[in-house]
Amino acid sequence: MGMKAAGGSVRIERHIDAPADRVARYIGDFRNAREWMVGVEAVERLDGERYRLYLETPVGRMEPEAKITERGEDRIRWIYTSVVDGGGEVVVRPDGERGCVVSYSGYFRLRRGLLDRAARLVGAERFARRNGERSLERLKALMEARG
């Protein structure tokens, strides 16, 4: 993604035995984040391409707003517009006849300095990496179960 913040960044890839176009369509609907993104308790569409996420984090419950900045046939990219500086991107590319590789990249820094420092103390970057890995495993299970 090319952008880095002091809080941390994560980049993870997983192979999924499901057609790339089906996986990309599913990910492209940001409301589905609740089903596959670990830590996302709910997603509320505000208007157009703006959403509110309800997250459980090491520093408590957070409700950042996110804006989709790019939505294509093979990717979705967003930025946070409140609570967190940062954003994320998920890219799906074909891999073999039936499978695909899903890449997740994210970067973050809590806006209030004290919270950012607290997040570092409790291992927010490690927490984000673990949740990212678990999220792609959950996505893999969901997509492969659908055949």
Concise summary:
This protein is α+β, with helices and mostly antiparallel strands and 147 residues long. The chain is built from 4 helices and 8 strands, in the order E-H-H-E-E-E-E-E-E-E-H-H.
3D structure, described in words:
A hairpin with a 2-residue loop joins strand 3 and strand 4. Strands 1, 2, 3, 4, 5, 6, 7 and 8 form an eight-stranded antiparallel beta sheet that branches. Helices cover 30% and strands 44% of the residues. It has helices at residues 20-28, 33-36, 113-121, 124-145; strands spanning 8-16, 40-47, 50-57, 60-62, 65-71, 75-80, 84-95, 99-110.
Secondary structural class:
alpha+beta
* Fraction of helical residues: 25-40%
Order of helices and strands: EHHEEEEEEEHH
Overall shape? globular
Poorly predicted parts: 1-6
Rg value:
15 Å
Mean pLDDT: 85
Number of helices: 4
The largest sheet, given as strand count, sense and whether it forms a barrel, is: 8 strands, antiparallel
* Beta strand count: 8
Distance between the termini: 31 Å
**Residue fraction in strands:** 35-45%
Topology, pairings included?
Blueprint: E1 8-16, H1 20-28, H2 33-36, E2 40-47, E3 50-57, E4 60-62, E5 65-71, E6 75-80, E7 84-95, E8 99-110, H3 113-121, H4 124-145
Antiparallel strand pairs: 1-8, 2-3, 3-4, 3-5, 5-6, 6-7, 7-8
Keywords:
eight-stranded antiparallel beta sheet; single chain; alpha+beta; about 150 residues
